[in-house]
Every structure is written in structure tokens, then in C-alpha cells.
Design a protein that fits this description.
By secondary structure, the protein is an alpha/beta fold. It has ten helices and 15 strands. Helices cover about 25% and strands about 25% of the residues. It is globular, with a radius of gyration of 17 Å.
């Protein structure tokens, strides 16, 4: 059935998102017959059309936390997944703030949109659920949105998605055994921003997890000026793990990567 990711956007940080220097539509994971949209920020619908991904065929939607660059198109993605609200289908997974709100956050999914789904769930770190053939495990983060999550997707392969947040001691334990690791890396080497990951921290986590492939994305303006491709090469040199910097519209075919190496697996 294959496994691939299509990046609808690789923007991180307010300046990059509000200027659309990079797009901000999240990414779509296809794995073991499931199609899951993760963190559909501003422009997700437009990018789906641009990159030829049919959101009506989604089986699930994940919103990692209650910051606009991760949720703004979520309700319209739900409408696509339910074929214009005509079919009760699809599964939504989010943290507590996404579904219920909190002191500083309002819920970002309306009761109407929750009602038209087949199912929705609130996960906390360590929580587990399923979307069809995939097991989904929520992981903790260290981020300004204190209930923000990362995720592990387990099927025929295992993908770890760190979500937003800086590296914290022991984070690697939550991604043990991951074949692939996807990291949101806002800043380049030696440039820190509280509660966000930089290249040094990404290299530490990748070096401890040792996946077959690491992918960095969610770049801020300083990272773009530093050149994400150069930062990825530095991580690869430091860790010995093949590391790439995602681009808007990039599609990674993991099956071809496993069989053929580096020549035929990226569009």
C-alpha cells in the first residue's frame, strides 16, 4: 500500500507565515491505506488543489496544538473529508485546547464540525488510539501551548512527528524504534528561541533516535536565511543519519527510498 508524505507547507514562525515566504498548509501522510492530514494551517485547501491531493479521501485529521499556523483550515478540511458535510466520516485527533479550549484558547473546531465526524478524540501524552490500520501515540512537547503534542504513527513502518517545541531531556525515549523522524526546526545552529527547536537540538534528538531518515521542516525567517539544506547537511554530518530539508510541495515516497536509495524517492 506504500507510504508517502506530501508537504503542503514548510513555514514556521509568524513572519514566514504571514508573508507566505513559505506555505503553511501542514502535511498529508499516506500509510497502510490511510490518508491523514496533520496540522492544516493557513492555505491548506489551496495547496491540496495545487499539489493534487484529494481531501475527500482523507480518513483522519490531526491538530497537534492550538496555534493558528496548525489549525486555521481544520474545519474546511473536515468539510472536505465529510464530502461537504453530507457523510458522517473521518476521525479527528487533537489536544484538549483544540477541542475544548482553555484559559488562553478557544476551541478551534465548532460543535457542528465535531458532530459530522465519525469520531473525535482528545489525547494526552502517552495516549493511544487508531485511525484505521494505524496506531497513533501522543508524545509530550516543551512548547508555549502547554498541551501541545507530538505523535508516533505505527503501521508497517513507524514515523515520529515531534510537533512544535524545544528538545527536552528524555524526549528520544518517545521515538524509540521510529524508522523515520519528522522535526519542526524553527531556527538554525546556535540561534535559540524558547520552546522551539533549533538545528543543534534537532541533531541531538536525531543522533539519539537514529532513524533511517530524518526530515526537518517548519522554518522561521532566520532559518531560511541560513539555508535549511545546509543545516540538514550539517545534521547528517554530525549524526550519520540521512537528513533532508523539506520544501513546499515535496512528496517523499518512503517505499522507493527503502528500495532504491536517494535517486527516485522525492518529487
Amino acid at each position: 500500500m506504500g507510504m508517502n508524505i506530501t508537504f503542503f507547507g514548510t513555514a514556521g514562525g509568524r513572519i514566514v507565515i504571514m508573508t507566505q515566504t513559505r506555505a503553511s498548509g501542514g502535511f498529508v501522510l499516506e500509510m497502510d491505506g490511510e490518508r491523514i492530514h496533520v496540522d492544516p494551517g493557513p492555505g491548506a485547501l489551496v495547496r491540496a488543489k495545487q499539489y493534487g491531493v484529494n481531501l475527500r479521501k482523507l480518513t483522519g485529521l490531526i491538530v497537534s496544538h492550538c496555534h493558528p499556523d496548525h489549525y486555521t483550515d481544520a474545519e474546511m478540511v473536515i468539510e472536505s473529508m465529510t464530502e461537504g458535510t453530507r457523510k458522517k466520516r473521518g476521525i479527528l485527533i487533537g489536544n484538549e485546547h483544540v477541542i475544548k479550549g482553555g484559559d488562553e484558547y478557544r476551541p478551534v473546531i465548532s460543535p457542528f464540525h465535531l458532530r459530522i465526524l465519525e469520531r473525535y478524540e482528545i489525547l494526552k501524552p502517552g495516549g493511544k488510539t487508531k485511525i484505521g490500520n494505524l496506531e497513533i501515540i501522543a508524545t509530550p512537547t516543551k512548547h508555549g501551548e502547554e498541551k501541545a503534542l507530538g505523535f508516533v504513527f505505527k503501521g508497517s513502518k513507524t514515523l515520529g512527528y515531534c510537533g512544535d517545541g524545544e528538545y527536552f531531556k528524555g524526549q528520544e525515549k518517545h521515538f524509540e524504534g521510529c524508522d523515520y523522524l519528522l522535526l519542526n526546526v524553527l531556527r538554525p545552529r546556535n540561534v535559540k528561541w524558547p520552546e522551539h527547536m533549533n538545528t543543534n537540538q534537532a541533531a541531538k534528538l536525531i543522533g539519539l533516535v537514529k532513524p533511517s531518515l530524518a526530515i526537518i521542516q517548519h522554518f522561521g525567517m532566520i532559518m531560511l536565511k541560513a539555508n535549511p539544506e545546509k543545516e540538514a547537511k550539517w545534521i547528517e554530518k554530525e549524526t550519520g543519519v540521512k537528513t533532508i530539508a523539506a520544501r513546499d510541495g515535496m512528496r517523499i515516497d518512503f517505499e522507493k527510498f527503502s528500495k532504491h536509495g536517494l535517486n527516485k524517492w522525492i518529487k
